[in-house]
Structures are given as structure tokens and as C-alpha cells.
Design a protein that fits this description.
Largest interface: A-B, 36 and 38 residues
Structural class of chain B: mainly alpha
Oligomer: heterodimer
Radius of gyration of chain B: 21 Å
Order of helices and strands of chain A: HH
Number of helices of chain A: 2
Helix content of chain A: over 70%
Distance between the termini of chain A: 81 Å
Number of helices of chain B: 8
Number of strands of chain B: 0
Number of strands of chain A: 0
């Protein structure tokens, strides 16, 4: 068992705080990436991008 | 140079970062974990500060990184304002929460180290106050990103605010030399070499490398999430326009 001396509370609190903040940062980015990927998949499955391309092609044909 | 320019395309960036992230995550985890094992098992207690020296292995790398990410944001701000590069906007936005988190860690761990060593959690001296100002600037930048809906306009406003804050980084660096502060002077990056004993210096540098890799990993992952968010936004707008157009023709 490691002995941290009379200031053990301060040392443990500093490490616990850093672990919580870095853990929260990692979780935030992971959750955000997952949410955005799901939204993008849903939009692409509805053909949001492809229909835009088709509309653009149609507009170009009508103009010419 | 041509290769770097080619990678600056968002689609290529997504592909490259997808391949890099597992390696970066693994290496940053191994180095940080190994560094702390080294620091906790091999480094002797300091002759004055005792075991509280263990807080240094968190506090110092976090303090370096809070300035590192600010400088990265400043470089990206130039990329936004001068070259109008879309990845520069994305880089700025992804770096802000990471920089803010490391600044918070620096402030709190410094405070927890200060109480047993200085007898106080806080002192309004040059170094501590300038780091607090850095944290407030990060908070302002994060608020500004949320306040302006259009990402392009938000990026330009944030860029200006970021560049205005650069002198504060210079103040943080030299505050311990310019003013008589409670915070100790630099003991690693000095003209006459590090003042710290190698038994503490080497694990500190090792952990700092690990923290930097961790920060870069988080930054790349954050940039990926932001690129995806912008694609979602674009496709949502396109879908709404298409539905509007379909409704108008009926």
C-alpha cells in the first residue's frame, strides 16, 4: 500500500478531478460522433443528398 | 506540401483520421498510463514538498496543453481569416473544449497543490490570474460558437476573439519573471537548462508527451464529429428546401 503522507486528500482529489474531466471530454466526443453518424445515416437513407443532385441536374437541363 | 494540402479536404481528412485514431488512442493511453506508473512507483518524494510532488505530473502537462491548444486555435484562426479554409474552422471549434478542459485541470490541480504548500487555494498573482483569464476566454469562445448559428460567421467572430487573446499567453509564460509571484518560476524550459532532477524530469516529459498525444487524439476525434455535424446540417437544409419546393408545386 502506497503511503501518500499527510496531504493524501489533496493528491487523490487532484487525480480524481483530472480523471473525471478527461473522462467527460472523451465521453462527450464519443457520444457526439455517434449521434452525428446516426443522423447522417438517417438523412442519407432518405436520399437527402442524392435528391439534391437530381434537382440540380434537372434545373441545369431546364436552363439549357 | 502538396500531400498536406490534399489531406486538408474534409472527406480525405475523415478517411485519414479514421485510420490514425485507433493507433493514436492506443499509444496515448499506453504512454499516459505508463508515465503515471513510473511517476508513482519510481519517483522519490521531494525533499520540501513530499508526496504532493505527484500533483506536478498532472498540473504541469495540463498547463502546457492549455497553452498548446490556444496556440493551435490561433493558427487555425489565421487559417479561417486569411485562407478561409473550412478545416481551419473545424479545427478551432474542436480545440476549444479540449483547451478549456485542460485549463480547468491546471487551475484545480494547482489549487489543490497550493493549499498544502502555500497555505492557500488561491492567490491573485500574475500567473494564477492570467490562467484564470485564459479559462474565461475559452468559456467566451465556447459561448460564441453556440450563440451564432451559421458556422462560417461563428468561425470568423471566434477567430477575432482568439487572436485578441494571444497576448494573454505571453503574459502567462512571462508572468513569473515580470512580477514577484507566489507561483514558482520555470524549472524545465530555461535558457540554462532544466533545474529539476532527472528522476522527476524524465517521467514528467514522458507524461507530457502522452498528454499531448491524448490531446491530439481528442482533437482529431472532435474534428471528425464537427465535420459530420456540418454534413448533417447541410443535408437537413437541403431536405427542407426540397420539401418546401415539393409543397409549392402542389
Amino acid at each position: 500500500m502506497m503511503i501518500l503522507g499527510p496531504h493524501a486528500t489533496f493528491i487523490v482529489a487532484a487525480y480524481a478531478f483530472a480523471v473525471i474531466v478527461i473522462g467527460a471530454l472523451i465521453a462527450r466526443i464519443a457520444i457526439d460522433t455517434r449521434n452525428q453518424t446516426r443522423k447522417l445515416d438517417a438523412l442519407e437513407s432518405r436520399g437527402a443528398g442524392r435528391r439534391r443532385q437530381a434537382t440540380q441536374q434537372q434545373a441545369a437541363t431546364q436552363q439549357s | 506540401m502538396q500531400w498536406i494540402t490534399a489531406q486538408a479536404n474534409p472527406t480525405r481528412f475523415l478517411d485519414l483520421s479514421r485510420r490514425l485514431l485507433p493507433w493514436l488512442s492506443a499509444w496515448s493511453g499506453i504512454i499516459v498510463f505508463g508515465g503515471f506508473i513510473w511517476a508513482w512507483t519510481k519517483v522519490p518524494p521531494d525533499y520540501q514538498q513530499g508526496e504532493t510532488i505527484k500533483i506536478m505530473f498532472l498540473h504541469v502537462p495540463a498547463s502546457w496543453l492549455c497553452m498548446f491548444f490556444y496556440m493551435m486555435m490561433s493558427a487555425s484562426a489565421l487559417g479561417t481569416l486569411v485562407w478561409r479554409h473550412p478545416l481551419a474552422d473545424v479545427s478551432q471549434k474542436a480545440a476549444a473544449p479540449i483547451g478549456a478542459a485542460f485549463t480547468l485541470i491546471s487551475l484545480v490541480t494547482g489549487s489543490l497543490w497550493g493549499r498544502p504548500m502555500w497555505g492557500t487555494y488561491w492567490q491573485w498573482d500574475g500567473r494564477l490570474t492570467s490562467v484564470l483569464i485564459l479559462f474565461l476566454i475559452y468559456c467566451g469562445i465556447l459561448a460564441l460558437w453556440r450563440a451564432i448559428e451559421d458556422p462560417g460567421r461563428a468561425a470568423r467572430a471566434v477567430s477575432v476573439l482568439t487572436l485578441i487573446g494571444i497576448p494573454n499567453i505571453v503574459i502567462i509564460k512571462f508572468s513569473v519573471e515580470w512580477w514577484n509571484t507566489l507561483h514558482q518560476g520555470s524549472s524545465v524550459f530555461r535558457m540554462d537548462g532544466p533545474k529539476m532532477h532527472t528522476s522527476m524530469l524524465y517521467p514528467l516529459l514522458f507524461i507530457a508527451i502522452g498528454f499531448t498525444l491524448l490531446g491530439i487524439t481528442l482533437h482529431l476525434a472532435g474534428m471528425r464529429a464537427e465535420i459530420l455535424r456540418r454534413r448533417v446540417r447541410t443535408l437537413t437544409i437541403l431536405e427542407a428546401e426540397r420539401l418546401d419546393a415539393a409543397g409549392a408545386t402542389r
